[in-house]
Structures
1.
Amino acid sequence: MNNRATEKQYDHVSSIMDLVSFRKFGNAFRKNIDSFFKAEYNTAAVGGWVSASFPWSEVASYIVGDQSYSMNTKQYKNFCKHLGIKPQQ
């Protein structure tokens, strides 16, 4: 089923960000969860000043940490599989 991911799964995605390189995380996130997970789309949305003040990796950590994205269980499982990490229930 493609139900909305659980809070635990969102938290797991956030913790994965600390386990793998930002490049690897970003590629898996773009491929499996949100194809617009790129600096050019998100720094302007947060406010153009962000791109001058923070590196994209820091802005991305806020997006992931604040759960400012939508994810279903299938996307979550594919994301984990892409990174070779066991998904949470």
Note: Residues 7-83 form one domain.
2.
Amino acid sequence: MSVIRTVPKESLFKEVSAKFYFEYQVAGTYAGQYVCTNPEIEILKMNINTFYLVDIISIAGSIPENVFVDSFNPLLPLDMKLTRSVSGEILTAQKMIISQYLRDHSISTHIECNRGHDGIKIILSGILDQVADTIGLDTISLNISISTYQIDGVEYNRFYRGSDLDKRMKRI
């Protein structure tokens, strides 16, 4: 079974991105490894009474993908979650382990903003190991890009907010 989704024509497409930096640790608990220095970044401010479709994610970095894969630490894997900026509510079904670069990976999460001053935040945790190809690198960067749609069409909002939902679900 396949799912066909339609985003209303008046929706605003926006690609947002965040750059995370991992610095090499000379001493301490994570000596010989790379630790993220900016693990939380707000990527999008949301408008009140608006739906958002967080659709596609792409991940790339400053080192070749095969080197990134080699630096994967199985004990403290690099993982990502999307949260609300204000409440910290996790927006995706589960954390996403980042073990390789991604190109146009579908995450398709709908988010409703019904309070002001909220946003979407990416939170990273985990470390990267130093491998032969990263010797001499003080910093590794990881760029995460996410395609979003801001959906504030009247018909779409009525479908998801109002009594039309029950009627439409019975037709499906």
Note: Residues 163-172 have pLDDT under 50 and may be disordered.
